[in-house]
Design brief:
alpha+beta; seven-stranded parallel β-sheet; 11 helices; 20 strands
Length: 420
């Protein structure tokens, strides 16, 4: 498997004299054949600025930094694929930070690109190629004309057309999981937040957070417009907003009004679940699905990343348990990172967390972060590092009744009678 690199102009090449290497945490590692799959549809190759690739010299058996202006190359995977290794690289300038993406090791093998990844879900619904941009433009114009005073539709039109966000695009296309953001504030200060960064962070937020408080009428219009099919999902909690439960009053009233008019579809919230009392009120209003974002079931790691304000990981656990006990189909949005998530202590803690909360689905989501910055703020490994592939196998063995996936699912028919 040949090392893949880019020149200073972004042209991508494979190096005939060096074997590709990957990275797990801060360690350069050998890539195994059983970790490789062909580059998936919808994946994107990108160069890693301020880096130099590292390859294995087969003649000497030594690792070597590739010079001459070469940059490391990674793949950005679509939803449905779990990253197993980072690209093998070193920073040419240690003070520079990589843009906030989830870089995956890529190699050249048998005449094509391969990546270190495992398919964890059906990628069809989240394949960017399945979003007809022409049809999207037509539907954006239609709904903006139908609801000219609705600021949420105007906000989401930029998300769909400008950022090419698939969830907001679904809102206009009337399909699958659609977005309804509600909050401009947050009760966490996530390291590497994608919608808001302090001026001195060194990161550039890839998108802009909403800057207004929507009315219940605006929210209800979007929900009713989208919930027209039995399998439709409308979701609070998007990358362009803060924590949705900070606007619990709006959410509760909107759910109650919508459910007084239709029973179609599912109402979902993507949340950090730290505001337990607010989460209980949202569940009691008629929530169907809850996806809780987490990076760890260990307090020190969780706190280092989320920087929670006025809540703890125990609050998160209580919220999940309450939702599960009251018929909500619960899942976690598990932000995973090779060399960290696959640590022995992380695996043990997460298995216990899943069992205590009774959640039904783990959504494996590749963490978008500058690796060096992330590794600098979290605790060091305490035990063995198993590797991401073995970690997935352990989860499947230890949690046989929990779905290992990548995005929000419509619950199985056998569970429909338990939903609120």
């Amino acid at each position: 498997m040949n090392l893949v690199y880019a020149d200073e102009h972004g042209n991508v090449f494979d190096h005939p004299n060096f074997v590709a290497l990957g990275r797990s945490g801060d360690m350069i590692v050998e890539i195994m054949d059983d970790e490789l799959i062909p580059l998936p549809n919808g994946a994107t190759l990108v160069s890693l600025p301020f880096t130099r690739p590292i390859g294995l010299n087969p003649d000497t058996g030594e690792m070597q930094v590739i010079q001459g202006g070469a940059q490391a190359v990674g793949a950005l995977l679509p939803q449905g694929f779990t990253r197993l290794c980072l690209p093998g690289y070193v920073k040419a300038d240690k003070n520079e930070k990589l843009p906030l993406f989830g870089y995956t090791a890529v190699v050249w093998k048998d005449g094509g690109f391969y990546v270190t990844a495992e398919q964890s879900d059906d990628p069809e619904r989240w394949d960017p190629l399945n979003c007809d941009r022409g049809e999207l433009g037509i539907q954006v114009e239609r709904l903006l004309a139908k609801y000219p005073e609705n600021r949420l539709y105007k906000h989401l039109s930029n998300c769909a057309l400008g950022y090419e966000c698939l969830t907001s695009s679904n809102t206009f296309l009337g399909r699958w999981e659609g977005a309804v953001p509600v909050s401009y504030s947050c009760n966490a200060g996530c390291f590497g937040c994608i919608s808001e960064q302090p001026d001195d962070s060194g990161f550039v937020a890839p998108q802009t957070r909403m800057n207004f408080k929507p009315t219940v009428d605006e929210v209800v219009e979007i929900m009713l417009e989208h919930l027209r099919k039995p399998e439709s999902i409308i979701s609070f909690g998007q990358g362009c907003e803060g924590e949705p439960s900070t606007q619990a009053k709006i959410i509760v009233e909107a759910i109650q009004r919508v459910r007084s008019q239709t029973s179609l579809g599912y109402i979902n919230i993507n949340t950090n679940a730290g505001l337990t009392d607010f989460m209980r009120a949202i569940v009691d209003a008629g929530l169907n699905l809850m996806r809780v974002s987490t990076i760890s079931a260990l307090d020190d790691h969780y706190n280092a990343y989320y920087k929670p304000r006025g809540y703890t990981l125990k609050n998160v656990e209580k919220s999940l348990k309450y939702a599960t006990d009251n018929g909500v189909y619960t899942s976690i949005n598990y932000l995973i990172f090779p060399g960290v998530t696959d640590r022995e202590e992380e695996i043990e803690a997460m298995i216990g967390f899943v069992k205590r909360t009774g959640l039904k689905l783990i959504q494996m989501r590749n963490l978008n972060i500058d690796p060096e910055s992330y590794l600098a703020i979290i605790p060091k490994a305490q035990g063995e590092i198993y590797g991401m592939k073995q970690m997935l196998e352990i989860f499947r063995d230890e949690l046989p009744d929990v779905v290992i996936g990548s995005y929000t699912h419509v619950p199985p028919a056998s569970m429909l009678r338990t939903l609120r």
